[in-house]
Amino acid sequence: MSETANLAVRLTGTIGKHKVVSAPEELVTYEVEGLPPAVIVQPATAAEVVEVVKFAVAEKLAVLPLGSRSKCEIGMAPARYDIAVDMTGLHEIAHYDAGDLTLSIDAGMPLRELETFLRQHGQFLPLAVPCFESTTAGGAIASGIDSALRQQYGTARDFVIGAEFVDGLGQLCKTGGRVVKNVTGYDLQKLLIGSLGTLGVITRVNFRTFPLPAMYGGHVATFGKGTAALEYREMLEKAGMPLTNLEVISPEVVKMIRAILQQAQENVPPGLEAGSWCVYSAFEGTERVVKRVSGELEKFARGAGAQNCQVLETSADEVLGGMLREAFEWLRWAAPATLVLRLAVCAKLGEAIDELQRAAEKLAVRSALLLRSAGIIYFTLLSDNEMEMVAPAKEIYSTATILANSHGGHAAVLHAPIEAKRRITETRLERRDASLQQRVKKVFDPEGIFVPGRVAGGI
After folding, report:
1. What is the per-residue pLDDT for 281?
2. Could you identify which of 65, 132, 150, 435 might form a hypothetical disulfide with 85, taking C-beta atoms 3.0 to 4.6 angstroms apart as the criterion?
């Protein structure tokens, strides 16, 4: 009997025959960076997840929790990967109090399904993340991917109020609560956000929900130079404009969006002009508020010297807003080989952007830039050949990490060719939080069973 078959048989005794998959054609669909698991388990309850983790601890096997698998390439390639824990079998709404604006859902609940449910009650969850049609609640939290509504509603840290997870000893842990004003204990649920499955298996998440706005609005202003677009963006932030989204789109990204929409035979939103820097603003509220914000944006744009400014019709706003929400998805496939970096920069955005673009020009590699809400930069390198991307990817990652650290932020790889990731992993840059990360990992996962190597630094 092969090692995989033997492992599958032993796991069958743990959670049941029909919840263990070992067929080669299935295993390949769960690959992460070219590495398939030895076996797939599909638990239906948190108790079954506990048993799987305890089994892995006893057998010293590496575990990776997965949802829809739409973002499992974020982060580094795992050093080991034995058991894929498919969490989509846990997909119930455990608790919902519309009056209290609180919700508790299983980790495998699809966000699109949740949106439909909440809309019936006049509410929504501001977790507008890429791959929205398929992604699960647990996957969105573990990936730490950005929400397009961050400008107004903040990140998941601001509306995740509790969680349930299985730690590296096979213990079912609970943190936070179901109510917003919960002040007992530590907010350990916040550590799970962006953990990429390295600290535990998320089984349930508690959220604060929000009332649906009465109306939505969108506005695009175009500029000939990036400096002018950044000045306009800064002007809006200083004015305290009530925006749900604010993004600066470089000409290369504008070109990508236009090409995708034209290929899909959809109308390109007005104002998204080829060769221009564009600033997209989204807003919401009552009819009176939306009308007022639209007018103020027009005045600000003209005052900033915009070449063109346009209040978007509802259909055009939905198209552009949807495209920007899905930016991670189409940026990573924008060329045969791409590197997508995410930088969080707390100050001097213009300087950071200039330095990144100069570094790309020096390496003679095409680049594209999307400045998202709250100082988040998506910087992408594009090449026609994976091997030609390896050296530039390592160089730009080093530049981005040093740059982010110097500006009080951090840098992360969202997507890169496998060989580029391997070379990036060799980059021994001193992270300000490396020691703390290692200590947290040891507390949550003392045996190191949760996808070792997933986070740069061997975590």
Report:
1. 98
2. 65
As to burial, measured by CB atoms within 10 angstroms (0-12 exposed, 13-18 middle, 19+ buried), residue 432 is exposed
What residue ranges define each of the domains in the chain, with the CATH number in brackets? 3-88 (3.30.43.10), 90-211 (3.30.465.10), 215-325 (3.30.70.3450), 330-422 (3.30.70.600)
User: Model pTM greater than 0.85?
Assistant: yes
What are the φ and ψ backbone dihedral angles of 256, each rounded to 5 degrees?
-65, -45
Task: Give CA 188 to chain center in angstroms.
Answer: 19
CA distance 342 to 400: 9
Using 50, 70 and 90 to split pLDDT, how confident is the model at 438?
confident
CA distance 137 to 111: 6
Q: How confident is the model at residue 2 (pLDDT cuts 50, 70, 90)?
A: low
Residue matched to tokens 């842990």: 173
* Secondary structure E strands in 99-151: 102-106, 123-124
Burial of 378 (0-12, 13-18, 19+ CB in 10 A): buried
Pair 89, 110: CB distance under 8 Å: no
> Per-residue pLDDT for 107 more than 80?
yes
Pair 416, 342: CB distance under 8 Å: no
- Residue 64: the pLDDT is 96
Residue range 125-129: mean pLDDT, rounded: 96
Mean pLDDT of 360-365: 95
Eight-state DSSP code of residue 447: T
Buried b (16+ CB within 10 A) or exposed e, 319-344: bbbebbbbbbbebbebbebbbbbbbb
Strand (E) or helix (H) holding 371: strand 366-371
Name the residue with tokens 């730690």.
167
Beta strands in 17-149 (DSSP E): 20-21, 39-41, 63-66, 83-86, 93-97, 102-106, 123-124
| Average pLDDT taken over every residue of the chain | 92
Number of other CB atoms surrounding residue 298 within 10 Å: 16
Beta bridge partner(s), residue 247:
280
pLDDT score for 453: 86
Q: What distance in Å separates the CA atoms of residue 372 and residue 361, rounded to the nearest whole number?
A: 22
